[in-house]
Specification:
Low-confidence stretches: 1-10, 81-93
Mean pLDDT: 82
Distance between the termini: 30 Å
Bound molecules: iron/sulfur cluster
Number of helices: 5
Number of strands: 3
Shape: globular
Strand order of the largest sheet: 1-2-3
Largest sheet: 3 strands, mixed
Oligomer: single chain
Strand content: 5-15%
């Protein structure tokens, strides 16, 4: 996939912390391409939830996204205390599951499933459509995630229209 900017003016994204207030490109780790379409307001805390909602709105509006390794512009709002990713960009904490390598392996798997690569810059709405089309369910993909049951409930809602 190429960078498909179409010349439209787009608002910068206020992440409310982390790396400044007006990023033009949202830095996103790949597995969040599965989480964002299934996000219904539940998360690791208020700041994290706000970051998820902002990322979703920004992407749905066609904001540009860069796929990155490790902590991204959502992780920086995670309230969990150390251990955090060694050398992490923000020095913020990570949920326990994020310090085990499980999340990084999930990131790599999602890239393969979506046929994408780290470093890609693409419109958020294009990436979300691709995610929904290529991974209609996370049932077999996200085994081990504490939010899996909730995400499967969201998918059930999709199926029921
Ligand atoms: S199960 Fe976990 S990793 Fe998978 S989409 Fe849901 S929140 Fe994201």
């Amino acid at each position: 996939m190429a960078d498909m900017t179409d010349g439209e003016e787009r608002e910068g994204m206020d992440m409310g912390g982390g790396r400044g207030m007006d990023a033009d490109v949202l830095r996103l780790r790949p597995h969040h391409l599965l989480c964002i379409p299934r996000y219904v307001g539940e998360g690791y805390g208020e700041d994290f939830n706000r970051a998820m909602a902002r990322a979703r709105d920004f992407m749905e509006a066609g904001g540009m996204v860069e796929l990155v390794r490790g902590e991204d512009d959502i992780c920086c709002s995670c309230p969990h205390a150390p251990p955090h990713t060694p050398g992490g960009r923000y020095g913020s904490g990570s949920a326990e599951i994020c310090s085990t390598g499980w999340v990084s392996r999930l990131d790599d798997l999602v890239l393969r499933l979506l046929a994408l690569e780290y470093g890609l810059v693409e419109r958020g709405d294009v990436l979300l459509s691709r995610s929904r089309a290529r991974v209609p369910t996370v049932k077999e993909v996200c085994v081990g995630c504490p939010w899996l049951e909730l995400c499967l409930q969201v998918e059930k809602g999709w199926a029921e229209g």
